Structures are given as C-alpha cells and as structure tokens.
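Late entry, evening session. Most of the bench is empty. Finally got around to the prediction I had been postponing all week. Sequence below, unchanged from the version circulated by S.P.
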Amino acid sequence: MSPSLLERLRKGGRFAVGTVQVLCAVHLFNEHVAEIRPCTGASMYPTLSHAGTFVLHSRLALRFSPLERGNLVTAGSPFDPAHQILKRVIGLPGDTVCVDPTGERKELKNEWCTVPRGHVWLAGDNTSNSTDSRDYGPVPISLIRGKVVARVWPDPGWLNARFHKVERV
C-alpha cells in the first residue's frame, strides 16, 4: 500500500470514530437530559398548535423537581407504549378527580376517580378532541418520560410549571 492510501484510510477511520462518538453523545443527551420534540394533534390546542410546534422536554427536570398539577409531560401511551403523548397533569396520587368535568361525555359526567399511588391523571387541554385519562384511566408514573420546559418553535421561550410563557423583565 502506498503511504498516501494509508494516510487516507487513517483519516477516514478517525472521521468514522469521531462521528460515532458524536452520535453516541447526542443519543445519551436525548435519552437522559433533554430532547426537542415536534407536537402533532389537536389535543393540546390552544396551548400548542396542532402542527408545527416544537417543545423541549426534559427527563432531567423530572428527576430534580416533583410532578405538579398543571405540568405538561410527555409519556408513553397506555394504549401503545411505542407512541408518545403530551398531556397536562390534572391529578396526583391520592387526588380525587372528576372524570369528565366538562360533561362532554354524558355517561361520565358525575363519575369521580381517586388517583392510586404511583399514578397520575392526564388530560389534554382540548377536551373535545383528546384521548386521555378519561379513556385509559390513571397513568402509571413509570410511563412519564419528561417535563415540557420550553417552547422551541414558534415563539421560543422558557415556560413555567403552568406552561405559560415566562415574562422577561
């Protein structure tokens, strides 16, 4: 082999190793710290648009601060764990919640549910177009993947626990 061919192979090998290292770092960051995710569907309208909104959800924020009522969270769907959902925490363990406070689902209008230990009650802001705890009941906390901490696009900015834009002074 000629010296120039060996040098090109070495450079290519270093490039491949560097690329794999960067991809591993990005994967670890997305899995354990934070990730930018697109939002689709109308269940969180008007808080989030049904298309074209990107949010930052953080697994790390979930580890450092407890869940609160009003938090927006990402979770694995109880119906299909491969599918991710984005909903608002309405009830915490021990809370008694009205299953359908809007009365949109007549058969559930006056039904109440006590959220069991290790579970939360999740709901979409657009109750008329949301599959949520009214359909699948209390959600195990183990399915919660992260808290939504910021809107990235459109109108980027940090958001507080109630998911309203933090005003800049």
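Two things to note before I forget:
The first helix runs from residue 3 to 32.
The domain at 35-158 is CATH 2.10.109.10 (Umud Fragment, subunit A).
Will write this up properly tomorrow.
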